[in-house]
Amino acid sequence: MGAGQSRSSNVLVVPQANAALDQLKYEVAQELGISIPQDGYYGNMATRDTGAIGGHITRRLVQIAEQQLAGQFK
């Protein structure tokens, strides 16, 4: 697998969201002080670090969804 490729079987419902999610990944990693490998290979990263990034991304996405839902029901 080359840089930027993933073995994930997840398929985005909105493919255009891929760039935004990738940007979010880098923002969260920077906030946590974790460097993401430039070659896109995560095999040398600690599971704890990748899990922390994923967990914070999930929290952020839930927060965004909650804000949008709250705005719909005002």
UniProtKB/TrEMBL annotation:
InterPro entries linked to this entry: SASP_alpha/beta-type, SASP_alpha/beta-type_CS, SASP_DNA-binding, SASP_sf_alpha/beta
Cited function: SASP are bound to spore DNA. They are double-stranded DNA-binding proteins that cause DNA to change to an a-like conformation. They protect the DNA backbone from chemical and enzymatic cleavage and are thus involved in dormant spore's high resistance to UV light.
Membrane-traversing stretches: none
Similarity comment: family membership: Belongs to the alpha/beta-type SASP family.
Pfam families for this protein: SASP
Keywords (A to Z) from UniProt: DNA-binding
Stored PANTHER family: SMALL, ACID-SOLUBLE SPORE PROTEIN A
Alphabetical list of Gene3D superfamilies matching this protein: Small, acid-soluble spore protein, alpha/beta type-like
Keyword Electron transport tagged: no
Domain of life of the organism encoding this protein: Bacteria
The name this protein goes by in its record: Alpha/beta-type small acid-soluble spore protein
